[in-house]
Specification:
The protein has 252 residues and is of the alpha/beta class. Helices cover 44% and strands 12% of the residues. A six-stranded parallel sheet has the order 2-1-3-4-5-6, sandwiched between helices. Strand 3, helix 4 and strand 4 form a beta-alpha-beta unit. The radius of gyration is 20 Å and the shape is globular. The relative contact order is 0.12.
Length: 252
């Protein structure tokens, strides 16, 4: 006679753990990761389920853990944080994405939000603001810290009011623009070729053409150009950072 199997009731600890906001950290400095974990887990409703030091391991962890919130820096070894943001929706569509960085330049904000970030907080912000940011993006809303909002130009939230694409961009082809955004995101020639379905030699040719047309002389210059002009997203034009002021929690 087969003995029927009855599921074991969840313990109080397991129930509480499941109700927590599950967070993955991607930060290359181990001390910063330790401090963030300690800070975040003071709140019993927040739980760090994974810590990673670069975009590659971070993507693997996000794929396995399917966290509620990703908290990531932009300056990472290897592939950039912008590149990481652009990949998350594909592997974990329910994960909300929050940037924690030292980069206060508005062009970095535009690039991050264009790549899919739901929030942007500076490392100089207070712990209360970071905790509020985590909760806000988890609830499906956008968040920009007060220091970023303070430097926004008038009308920034009204549509596509982001840095203007230089006239030189009109000279490059759509394929060259696709190569430009991927080079700026830190993709290798082989990875770009695989993604676009062309040969590495073709990618190299497109890269040389766009660098000539834009008067850029190094990969670092290409990356800087793309970030300054909000060209790291999939659109040929800069993406809006937000739609309405009321959708940004720190304006409330």
């Amino acid at each position: 006679m087969q003995i029927p199997h009855f599921p074991r009731p969840a313990t109080l600890f397991e129930t509480e753990t499941k109700s927590r906001i599950r967070i993955v950290l991607v930060e290359d400095h181990s001390l910063m990761r330790e401090c963030l974990r300690a800070l975040i887990e003071v709140d019993q409703k927040l739980h760090v389920v994974g810590e990673f030091e670069n975009a590659e391991t971070g993507l693997d962890g996000i794929r396995d853990l399917q966290p509620d919130v990703l908290l990531t820096d932009l300056a990472l070894p290897g592939r950039s944080g912008i590149d990481l943001l652009g990949e998350v929706d594909r592997i974990s569509p329910m994960t909300r994405k929050l940037v924690l960085t030292a980069h206060a330049n508005i062009h970095y904000v535009s690039a991050a939000m264009g790549a899919g970030a739901d929030g942007y907080v500076l490392k100089s912000a207070g712990s209360d603001e970071l905790m509020r940011a985590i909760r806000t993006v988890y609830m499906g809303r956008q968040f920009l810290c007060k220091a970023i909002i303070a430097q926004m130009p008038p009308g920034f939230f009204n549509g596509y009011d982001t840095p203007t694409v230089p006239a030189a961009m009109r000279a490059i082809t759509e394929r060259e623009r696709e190569v430009l955004t991927r080079v700026a995101a830190g993709h290798s020639t082989k990875a770009i070729a695989r993604n676009l379905g062309v040969s590495p030699q073709t990618v190299a040719k497109h890269r040389a053409n766009l660098m000539r047309k834009l008067h850029l002389h190094s990969i670092a210059a290409v990356t800087k150009f793309a970030i300054r002009n909000g060209l790291t997203g999939s659109s040929p034009y800069p993406s809006p950072v937000a739609t309405e002021p009321r959708s940004v929690a720190s304006l409330n």
